[in-house]
Amino acid sequence: MLPFKSLISSHQLTPDTVATIFESAHKMQTAIESKGRVGSLENAIVALLFFEPSSRTMLSFQSAAQRLNAGTIFAQNATSTSFEKGESLEDLIRIVAGYSDIIVMRHAQPGSAQMAADCSDVPFINAGDGGNEHPTQALIDAFTIEKHIGRLDNLKIVFGFDSLQSRSIHSLTRLLSQYPNNEFSFMGPSELAPPPAMISELEAAGVRCTQIKGLPDKLDYDVVYVNRLQEERFADKSIFDKHRRFYRLSYDMVAATQALILDPLPRIDEIDVTADDLPNAVYFQQASYGVPVRMALLSLMLSN
Length: 304
Ligand code: NCD
Description:
- The chain is 38% helix and 15% strand.
- The longest helix has 21 residues, at 15-35.
- It starts with 14 loop residues before the first helix and ends with a helix.
- By secondary structure, the protein is an alpha/beta fold.
- Strands 7-6-5-8-9 form a 5-stranded parallel beta sheet, with helices on one face. A 4-stranded parallel beta sheet has the order 2-1-3-4, sandwiched between helices.
- The chain folds into 2 domains: 10-133 and 289-303, Aspartate/ornithine carbamoyltransferase (Rossmann fold), CATH 3.40.50; 135-287, Rossmann fold, CATH 3.40.50.
- It binds N-carbamoyl-L-aspartate.
- N-carbamoyl-L-aspartate (NCD) binds next to helix 2 and helix 6.
């Protein structure tokens, strides 16, 4: 049982809820390894609405649904739906709720997830609403940290390089702020520092926050979490062009630290490919946890 019908924000992912989801995700992972499919959702239809580009999120939700033997229905971009004819998001969601048992949606508009959940009769999952939140990515990131480090508290984490616009950073910091004694640093260009409201919220939750201009000399942290500069969200593209090549973890930087290196991917410039085979570069493993974590979430939300 989960204490919510729809998942919109990492605010809802309290330590108890996270523990419930991870317990199920571990079972899902074992089941995938031994028999591939876990036929527990034969009678369910999962609607996947992806109105912004996606590879990992869309494919891992699809894989998760199929490993649970659920059916899927799918709309991939605004031009293939009646949005093109001027239909509102509210109307579309009402219709899709009549065709499915749970809706997963990615949309470019911050706040669209809440709006859609409010008019859906079936459970709803936010798969990214613009630069706002991406709570299922935060679950995968936290699952990776717990698997590799063994805890979600007492962590020193540095985030980069676009804490202003990265919904993955927003959601992960919000989730981890609910655990005691975490300390966050934010590295990157000053134009892309975290929104002041986010820092106030994290500090109010008890997180010590510091901001680092440029790249730190030493990556003396438990976790280094980087995400590409969010090119599609820049009002002024010259800021993106100015910083994209400078903000990059080199082979030497990754090799010189014990920190776990995470990236929600896609990787653009933020990590040099030569670092990929280093033992602490676990971002491809992190992406693989998308399937068991999303299987757990779908199955728990549909058994509510
Ligand atoms: C992230 C996203 O879409 O916000 N990707 C993902 O879901 N794995 C990160 C990104 O696009 O940079």
